Amino acid sequence: MKYIIIKGSKSSGKSATVKDICKRLNPSSIKQLCIDDSAIATLRPIGIADLDKDNYLLTVKKRSILVVASAPTEQRKKISDIVFALHSLNIFPELAIIAMSGIEKLKDFATAKELEKFGECVHETKIWRIPSNQFHKTEEWDERISHLTTLTLKNI
User: Fold this and answer.
1) C-alpha–C-alpha distance, residues 36 and 28, integer Å
2) What pTM, to 2 d.p., does this model score?
3) Contact by Cβ (8 Å): 6, 100
4) If DSSP codes are grouped into helix, strand and coil, which group holds residue 50?
5) DSSP alpha helices (H): ranges in 26-65?
6) What is the pLDDT of residue 65?
7) pLDDT at position 22
8) Strand partners, 44
9) Domain range spanning residue 124?
10) What single string gives the DSSP state of each residue in 109-131?
11) What is the full per-residue pLDDT of the chain (156 aa) written as tens digits?
């Protein structure tokens, strides 16, 4: 699995970035990955408007993409557990887009290191909050989303 890491501090716009990338990818299907307390995974179909700070499986050009829209530390779920949950459903995504805290302070969390077991990092970026109430309308935002969407499409 190839993966793209989007690093940033809390409130830097990681989830908003990932959600807008998902929208621009125009997926043929979106399924929310639900993992219960006993690590049982299920997929629940949702619409594009329902994307939030969660984990998803997108289908784009008949390829599977794992999307982790909220940093694993914020979810209190290790990235290995999220990937293994998909594997338990016999799903092996070609690409993953992972939002990640810039500095992981929780004990035993090392998202970037864990991801190395699953494949190759094709891009890693650090993002900062765009200081505007209408950040979605800024050129900086558009360039960020366009660049990451292009990278995603190039790697599936």
Assistant:
1) 26
2) 0.91
3) yes
4) helix
5) none
6) 98
7) 95
8) 32
9) 2-154
10) --HHHHHTTT-EEEEEEE-----
11) 999 999 988 878 889 999 999 999 999 999 999 998 888 899 999 999 998 889 999 999 999 999 999 888 888 899 999 999 999 999 999 999 999 987 777 777 889 899 999 999 999 999 988 887 788 888 998 999 999 999 999 999
CA angle 143, 144, 147 (to 5 degrees): 80
Query: Taking the alpha carbons of 93, 97, 103, 104 in that order, is the dihedral positive or negative?
Result: negative
Residue 52 carries which side chain, given as an amino acid letter?
D
The β-bridge partners of 101 are: 8
Output phi, psi for 152, to 5 deg.
-60, -50
**Domain count along the chain:** 1
- What's the full length of the chain, in residues? 156
Alpha helices, DSSP H, located in 59-138: 72-75, 79-88, 111-115
Burial class (CB within 10 angstroms; exposed 0-12, middle 13-18, buried 19+) of 51: buried
CA dihedral 108, 111, 114, 115 (to 10 degrees): 170
